[in-house]
Amino acid sequence: MKKSNITIYPAAALFNGRSTYFNQALVQGLEEKGYRTNFPQRDGFEFGNLHEALRGELPESEIPSAVENIIYYLDMGVFIPQSHVIVANLDEPQDEGVLVELAHAKNIHKHTIGFRTDVRSPYGSSIDNFGGMHFFPALYLCDTFISHHMPCQTPQDTRSQMQGLVDKIDEEISRQDFKPITPITDNILFSGIEDIHSSEGLEELVTRYISNKDKIASYGPKIIR
């Protein structure tokens, strides 16, 4: 399969500039190689924007849960199933959301690549197979594990070392034989919405969520306080 037909989902913790900047640079490198990406910072929702779209349509107390549900079902129900490869950042501290996404991808038979640039070794030795990280994610959730040191001492080093990581991921993906992915047509929230970021798309999404919120809530846990 041509690279332009292969879609990658970059799973990473996206709660600060350090993480979002790294993920953006990684995606830029992969897209320059010719791959498509389901890039959550660009293609997903920003919490504040989604909160604003729901304001006035739901009681204020229900909006935080609605935002969480919509983002969860976009990542787990669309981005990952509609990707051939999940590339997961396993640097410390490992993010629970990334590990859930990685496990879900593995369970639905996606090709999973985990990488680590971190030199911290909280669970072992920095010279063991997984660089001292907890072995569960690398050993049981990754088809391929990449250890890639990135000291980034100069801007030139930074670009070169990021390119090195991109090259390793590209080399691993190039070895695989992927089949076309069947488009999802039965997602109760997202199917048929061409642009989920447009005002029309957000309006339709909010309408669908409100119509199906009890069904969506039934998929989650029973909450006991």
What this model shows, in words?
With 225 residues, the chain is of the alpha/beta class. It has one domain (3-218): Rossmann fold (3-Layer(aba) Sandwich). It has 8 helices and 5 strands, in the order E-H-E-H-H-H-E-H-E-H-E-H-H. It has helices spanning 17-32, 40-43, 47-54, 63-79, 96-107, 135-141, 155-174, 199-218, and strands spanning 7-11, 36-37, 85-89, 111-116, 144-147. The protein has a 5-stranded parallel sheet with strand order 2-1-3-4-5, with helices on both faces. The longest helix has 20 residues, at 155-174.
Task: Please give a handful of descriptors for the protein shown.
alpha/beta, five-stranded parallel sheet, 225 residues, 8 helices, Rossmann fold, globular, single chain
CATH-scheme architecture: 3-Layer(aba) Sandwich
| Shape, principal axes of CA atoms | globular
Strand numbers in spatial order across the main sheet: 2-1-3-4-5
Beta-sheet strand percentage?
5-15%
* Ends apart, CA distance between termini: 51 Å
Helix fraction, binned, reads 40-55%
The quaternary state of the protein chains shown equals: single chain
| N-to-C SSE string, H for helix and E for strand | EHEHHHEHEHEHH
Work out the helix count. Answer: 8
Number of distinct beta strands: 5
CATH class: Alpha Beta
Tell me the count of domains.
Answer: 1
Radius of gyration, taken over Cα atoms and rounded to an integer in Å: 19 Å
Query: What's the rounded overall pLDDT mean?
Result: 93
Instruction: Give the low-pLDDT segments.
Output: none
Question: What is the CATH topology classification name?
Answer: Rossmann fold
Structural class: alpha/beta
